[in-house]
Amino acid sequence: MGGDFESYSAQLRKGVVQLLVLQVLSAEPLYGYALVKRLEELGEFVAGEGTVYPVLRRLEADGLLSAVWVNDVPGNPRKYYAVTDSGASFLSRTLEEWDRIVAAVHGLREAG
């Protein structure tokens, strides 16, 4: 009996991080490090750059994010990420699914 909570938690967070990335970037384009800092403000969902950058690459490869290099400040250019139309549609559908899941969990907890 029992189960591996750490493994389950890691899988759950993996999906949630993708949702959070899309939600934050739907408000404004950000470069990777700024996104990491913004997500860290939301709580301990994100383990840092090692978590966020692979998610950004995957979402970009899937066509849900676009990216553009910007060199508008001294120093290195920054790669800014923005949600594409496909990404906005995906986010909308994902949030609807999330709401259904949350409602089901709350319903079970209230009944139990």
List the helices and strands and how they pair.
Elements: H1 5-27, E1 30-31, H2 32-41, H3 49-61, E2 65-70, E3 78-83, H4 85-111
Can you walk through the features of this model?
This protein has helices spanning 5-27, 32-41, 49-61, 85-111; strands spanning 30-31, 65-70, 78-83. The mean pLDDT is 91. Strands 1-3-2 form a three-stranded antiparallel beta sheet. 65% of the residues lie in helices and 12% in strands. The radius of gyration is 16 Å and the shape is globular. 15% of the residues are buried. The longest helix has 27 residues, at 85-111. A hairpin with a 7-residue loop joins β2 (65-70) and β3 (78-83). The chain is an alpha+beta fold and 112 residues long. It has a single domain (5-111), classed as Arc Repressor Mutant, subunit A (Orthogonal Bundle), CATH 1.10.10.10. It starts with a helix and ends with a helix.
